[in-house]
Amino acid sequence: MTKTITLFCANEQADTAHAIDVDGAGEIVLTCECGRFVKLPANTDAAGLKVYAAKHKAANEGQVSMAAIEEKKAELLKSLGV
């Protein structure tokens, strides 16, 4: 069973489940269901993860995803007949 934690996803613009894994270098990898991931240093503890999660959400909340930008661009070009 995969262990998950809730973390803000910049792509989804929501708190989502992120699978927790450790890569070959010992880094902590948190992967969202959408496929985006973040890596934390191997020596990150629970307190450090909580601090990171808060800073990550503050830095990314309200950002527009590249997918949304591309979708708006496509709509604009279509409406222009391009």
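(the above was protein one; protein two follows)
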Amino acid sequence: MATIIGEVSYVDGYLRYGHYELEIPEEQVESFKSMKEIERAMWIRNAGEFVLDDYEVNGIGEILS
């Protein structure tokens, strides 16, 4: 099966909600919990994956050649 990509000139809409997800080994959980809040936030931001929970697309531009 082939994947064909048609890039568009723009996307218009709103990003509403999102969150980070980070999986860590069980042996690091206690270390994570003992960190200061700012350290935990930095770790999540640097190593986690950002996931959009809610968004709205209002318009999509023309497919570019």
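Reviewer note on protein two: The longest strand covers residues 49-60.
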